[in-house]
Design brief:
Number of helices: 10
Number of strands: 0
Structural class: mainly alpha
Oligomer: single chain
Length: 247
């Protein structure tokens, strides 16, 4: 069994693809990218609303997921195949449908786990009866590692199926898992960074649902753009890992 390539190789290859094909990737699905960016705030703070507004934000969250899938589908194809002219021709096929389904399952699963663990500090504090801080933080960190490490590893392990679906129209779960040439922890770290950034962005956007301010809007906009940028980097990392593993 060949040894895994180090994190430096993956990072360097990702930077190289962004430099060479970054503009082509961003131009591959411009309207989907715009819709994804504009609806991302509503997807992040959907639970903040009730009644009719809750259904509206839920619909916008669904639109966001579709735009997210269409955008990353195009990014994967360009990053793997180069500035291929068939990005538009591949629209509407089984590959895009498979990509949407898998990405949707991953996104919904991660979001649900993030929501569930959001109350974990309070639960642990109550279970410990207000114990001292070292014990509280020790139990909290250990609990988060136990819950999140397997999930992040699974996404890093099978995430290569996303570009494979975009390029070949199939998942090939076992083949992608076996073909992975890079160590998985860089992908896990990048995914964790995106989740943390998303949580921080949601925290900045939530007050805007009740008290709109110019400063809050500016801060929220910057945070949303940061999430989009990190999504671009993570998508490129998966595409590069897939390209080099499938070569």
């Amino acid at each position: 069994m060949p040894s895994k390539l180090g994190a430096g190789r993956l990072i360097a290859a990702t930077v190289g693809v962004i430099r060479q094909q970054g503009r082509a990737m961003l131009a591959a699905a411009p309207w989907s990218l715009v819709v994804f960016t504009l609806t991302l705030p509503f997807a992040l703070i959907a639970p903040a609303f009730y009644g009719t507004l809750a259904w509206v934000t839920l619909a916008l969250a669904a639109v966001n997921l579709i735009a997210f899938a269409r955008t990353t589908f195009a990014w994967h194809r360009v990053a793997v195949l180069g500035t291929a002219p068939d990005v538009g021709a591949a629209r509407g096929g089984s590959g895009e449908a498979r990509h949407l389904v898998l990405l949707g399952l991953i996104a919904i699963g991660l979001t649900a786990l993030a929501r569930a663990t959001g109350d974990l500090p309070y639960v642990i504090y109550m279970l410990l009866g207000g114990a001292n801080e070292p014990l509280f933080y020790g139990v909290l960190i250990a609990s988060l590692v136990v819950l999140w490490a397997p999930v992040l590893r699974a996404v890093a392990m099978y995430g290569l199926c996303l570009p494979n679906a975009a390029v070949k129209g199939e998942y090939a779960f076992q083949a992608m898992r076996a073909a992975m040439r890079y160590r998985r922890w860089p992908l896990m770290a990048a995914l964790f960074a995106l989740l943390v950034l998303g949580a921080q962005t949601a925290g900045q956007l939530w007050p805007l649902a009740y008290a709109f301010t110019g400063l809050g809007l500016a801060q929220g906009a910057v945070a949303v753009l940061g999430c989009v940028a990190m999504t671009f980097v993570l998508t490129t990392m998966f595409a590069v890992a897939y390209r080099d593993s499938a070569a």
